[in-house]
Every structure is written in C-alpha cells, then in structure tokens.
User: What shape does this take?
Amino acid sequence: MNLANCKIGQSSVRRAATMALTLGSTLGSLLSFGFVASAQSSDALIDTLIKKGVLTVDEGNDLRQQADNDFTKAIQVKNGMPDWVTSLKINGDFRGRFEEFYADNPGFTTRNRYRIRARLGVVATIQDDLEVGMRFTTADANNPVSANATLQGNASRKPVNFDAAYAKWSPIHEGPWTGSVVIGKFDNPFQVSNMVFDYDYVPEGAAIQTGYQLNDHHSFKAIGAYYVLAELNQANLTNNTGTALIDSTGLIQAPGHDPAIEGAQLLWDAKWTKKLDSQVGVSFYNLSGKDNLGTYLAANNIANINSGNTRTSGTSANPGRLVYDYNPFVISENMTYRLDSFPGYPGAFPVKVFGEYINNPAAPSRNEGYRVGVTLGKAGDKKKWEVTYRYQSLGGDAWYEEVVDEDNGAFYANTIPGDTSPVNSKYGNYGNWRGGTNIRGHEFQVQYSFNSSASFVFTYYLNTVIDKFTDPSNVNTLGDKSASSHFMADLLFKF
Assistant: This one.
C-alpha cells in the first residue's frame, strides 16, 4: 500500500509524528533541559517525513511550531518558569593553566605557578525583546583584568564572584536595522584588542549598540558606552590616616568627580568576495575624574595591578595620581582571506592579517601604541588549529594602564642592592615583573582544538620595558636589563 497516497495512513503517521515529537521534547527536558538535543531530533524527523512525501513543507513547518510550543511549555512546567520566560540557556567553561615568568636580570627569580578559571553562566530570554544574564567565576575580586585563581594556600577554598550580571533590551531587529541597550556588568562590546582592554575585563555601567545592514556585502555598527570606575562619597576625602587629600590646584576632591571611562566606536564589516572579508574600526575613549584614581585614596578602592602611566610622587605600595589626561583614539583593521585548503587543516584555511594604532593627544610624549600581526587557521572546531604572531609597542601614556593586557609585561629592574620590595617611581612600581603600558615586544600563540569543546593553547610573550629608570642610589649593580618572557600553557573545556 502506498502510504503517501492514503489519507488514513497520512493522518495516522502525522499523529504518530506529533506524539514522537512531544515524547522527544519531554525526554530531552528530563535529560538535560533538551534545548539543543530535542530541537535537532525534532527537525531531523520532520525533514525525513517531508522527503518521503508524508508531510508537505507547510505541514512540516506547522508541526515544528507546535513541537516548539509544546517543548517550551514542558520546560516551563518542569522548571517552574513563568510563561514570559521563553528560553533559559546555561553555559560555562573551565581552564587549567601553567605559566612561567623569566627574566635575564640577576635581580629576578624565575617564577612558576598553576591557575584555574571556572565560569558558569545562565541567560534568560524574556518576552518583549528582553534578556537577563548572570555569570560566576573563580577569581580574585580585586583584580579586574584577570579571572584566574592561583592554586596555593594548602588547598584552601577558592573564591567565587559575580563575573557578569546584566539586563539587555533589543527592541530593534526588523529589516536592516538592529539596536540594543545593556546595563549592569557585561562583556565588553568594543571590538578592540587587549592592547586597549584586557580580554578578561568585564566593565560595569551601560552600553548601546546599533547596526545597519547596507546590503549582502557591507554592514555598519555603532557602539557607545559609559563604564564606572569608582564612586566617591563625601566631599572631604581623607587617606587612611585621616589627612585631607588636596589636588594640584589646592582643592579638596569632590564626589562629583567620579572616575569613569566613556567610549564610542564605529565598525565597518565588508565581504568583498566569498573568500575575502575585512573589518575597519575607529573608536574614541575618555578617562574622566583621573585625579581621584590615585590608589592611596581610601574612598576609591582602585586596584593597582598594572604599571606604565606617569604619576605624581607616592609610596612604594601606592603610586600617586595620574599626571596626564587620557582621551585616545584607536584605529583597527583586519582582513581575512580563505584558501581552499591547507596541509593538515580540515576545510577552507583562513589567513588573517591585523593592525591597530592608538594615540593619546593629551600626553606630550610616550603617547602612542601599535600592534601588527597575522593568524593562520582558525581553532574552535574539531581538529582545527591556529597560529598567531604579533608585535606590539604601547607607550606608557598611550592609555590608562589598569585596563590593558595584564599578561603582556616585562621586568622593571631593581637597581638598589639588597632591596626586595617594589620601589616607587613616576611610572609606578619597579623591582618586579609588571604588565600594563610602557611595554614592547612579541607574542606567539598556538591553539589546537581536539573537538568543539576542548582546546590546547600555548602563549609566549617576549618583551622589554620601553622607558627604563635611572638608578636613584647611583649604585647600579644589577643593571637595567628588562627583557623577560611569559609562557602560558592552557587546557580549555567549554560547554
């Protein structure tokens, strides 16, 4: 009997298909919320029935919609979610790291350490184009440019902190236009390298994004953001000893001068051919309230992680206020060409060249930075790999030191014999390995993906300090050698 030509048979099969889809959705939710597995199995079954002529395309689409609705209701009932929550996604990753710091200066001792990063996030999609997300991570709460926890303390428990907590509204998503607004603590929307913002830096404040799809080959995006750095309380600020803090003009700092970063970026994405695409970006940033960013201000609690900016006098543990303003512009560009094949690489082989330039006109010198490099391949999928090389030079006052790459550093030579503690200078602490600005050198990275969820990453920095210091004691037995290397081996799992 030809089932495709039998109305009774078609009706029975459709009922059976509906029951199978409903059962698949329920089983998927019991196993692991079924978000991906159920959808894939349902679509595969419907596609098979359409190919065999049991269902028409329209009937198949109706059945998909019914299955999706039934599945969503089942998830809401099972998990007690209100009906205005349309989806709930859980994601996360784990990274194990070994790293080594080495410098050829006799005042530096080679350092090895083991670290972990574990992140767990949940994103709820809500009706009316709303989204709420939260993410937790193992990290030092006082380090904004690192999400790592060091293995130490005799197996002591590792702290867990909020890594992200935000609300997002995306009301524009029709036709060529898109638009969204986000508030809270969220992933950095600016598409720049870690020469400008460390990849672990998760800003706090608000951002707005708009996009326009001109045609199939060209699109534009505009981003604006306001990042809170500190919040001041009363007008009469004092340090830990109760002494009033006075700025360079003799005025006590006021709470109206809250430190913050304002930024704007315009991006142009172009697909020139099936093999060639590019992106060009121009961005502007401004650090406001800089006079209230000295780390000895008791009311601020600004973590002093990196070095490089020119500062007023301070102590070895607490360098003084920033001397110059920071309102740089950044120009970035990358271009990717895809070869049909490459030995040892599955599929089309991408070759990406990139460059970036930063200039801070508010500083009279040490105010420029640039990076150039190339990436061969693209890791992320099974058996795919990538190799990256880049050269970077970042002047000490090109940008605010506390938001740039922490791992890109060098050794600030300790020129005072017998002194084992950091010594203050106008550029921050020295006598130690420090990341931040005022660094130039090389980075090599190799990444291989065993599958879509597990990768091995090797990163090697070879750097030197740009501006070295004179010996304040005129006893320079250790010299001013600053060349140093930083090696990291990561094993990354994501879900």
